[in-house]
Amino acid sequence: MASMQMQVSMRKFAARHRTQHLARLAYQAMVEEAMLTPKPGLVDRRGPGSHTDLSLELMLRSAGAIQPFFACMAELASDSEPCTRLREELALIGRNAERAMFSASGGTNTHKGAIWIIGLLVAGAARKDGVTEIVETASAIARIPDRQFPRLATHGDAVRRRFGARGARGEAEDGFPHLMKYALPTLRRYLAMGAEPAIAQLNALVAVMRPLEDTCVLYRGGTRSLKEMQRGAGRVLDAGGASTREGMKQLLLLDATAKARGVSPGGSADLLASAIFLNSIEIENDGRAPAPAAERRHHGEACV
Questions:
Q1: Long-range contacts of 287-292 (CB under 8 A, 24+ apart)
Q2: Is-above-0.85 flag for pTM?
């Protein structure tokens, strides 16, 4: 009897350790995305980008406030198959995470999209190990209706009605196509080629910007700004990416365009953070040690 109780206790300890670890990986992914420099129109080490109400300090503070809620999502999902109860309880945790985010940021939306996208992936990772299975599980959860969903008009709703863009909700319900076809493969490819993490991440960011109907850009700048940002991202990639002189020149021109138009590709940034999160899990599954925290911080800024 004592032996059986010990085994149960050990399993519970291992499960709790796993949920906390997933939350840390999610937090680290958001930190790496925030600190990555230079990003077009986004908050980075240089400043607030196209924003007037954001800073790197706020982004980092917000990520720290959200981390415990990712652990709660993972713990909840680890004991449940995708179902209505799980979907609605995860949504409740997500709304509590939003309140913590707004409290930490002084009322500014720093990570609302990330709470949805990464939260679902954390829930998927609590149940599955492989990246494909994690994404499939996360998408299955997203497709379940949330009967408690507050019927409030949001920026995403406004963009969906006006432009027909699917946004973060559609990305998850559709199986995360931009994450799996563009952001994650690009990140993997450049890392496998020996690129610095910052270079790989910047290339992953522009790779997903090129096809994505980023609702953050659409809301602030409309279709014309979106097309201009997509073309600019394409020019970065066509020039060889952020590791080449011409590619970096095009990236900085894209940044100038974003700031001039007052737009910021926040949806693309959320997918980059998601790719970093999934890549971290993949590295662990392959038995490769991730870069130490100090090294990741050093690689958060590309050479300009």
A1: 291/197
A2: yes
